[in-house]
Design a protein that fits this description.
two-stranded antiparallel sheet; 5 helices; five-stranded mixed sheet; alpha/beta
């Protein structure tokens, strides 16, 4: 019975994820967020300042923004349930520059099956995958590389580092 309920929730969450997300800007303006035609992927990270795992992931996501900027992968963060002032203060204290939207009452987050934070939505033309729980930096690196971002150690043109020639004894 519990397995059936969990499956039903994931199906409902997947159907909800297919629709554009109705969120707010930090200024309280309505924002419709969805996968754009030219994008390979949209990664949406739901977080809060009180969530220690979320806080650890934000700098990794900020670095990935630079990595993925040249490609068709967009990264957006969505704060769940906190005020504009609390979000801005936190970002300024941490020195983070990220695209941040708000889900002031957590409705969008819950409609996607959010049961905990962080929650991540990886939205591609083929699927919409929702993961709950933290990821470490290597897991994020692997996820972004899999979505089409250059490897973390790539040069400015997106080329991976040269492999040194093998030494012959």
């Amino acid at each position: 019975m519990l397995r059936l309920l969990a499956s039903a929730l994931l199906i409902l969450a997947a159907e909800a994820a297919a629709q554009p997300l109705q969120l707010e800007s930090l200024d309280g303006e309505p924002v419709t967020l969805g996968l754009r035609e030219a994008e390979k992927a949209l990664v949406v990270h739901f977080w809060a300042t009180w969530c220690p795992e979320c806080v650890e992931e934000l700098p990794v996501l900020a670095a990935a923004l630079h990595r993925c900027a040249a490609g068709p992968v967009r990264i957006v963060t969505v704060n769940v349930g906190e005020s504009r002032d609390a979000i801005v203060r936190y970002l300024e204290r941490q020195g983070l520059q990220l695209p941040v939207l708000r889900d002031p009452r957590g409705r969008v987050w819950r409609s996607l099956g959010g049961l905990g934070l962080p929650t991540n939505l990886a939205w591609t033309p083929a699927e919409r995958r929702i993961d709950v729980g933290p990821r470490d930096a290597p897991a994020w690196d692997e996820a972004f590389t899999g979505l089409g971002c250059p490897p973390r150690d790539a040069d400015a043109a997106g080329r991976p580092p040269a492999t040194p020639p093998e030494r012959v004894p």
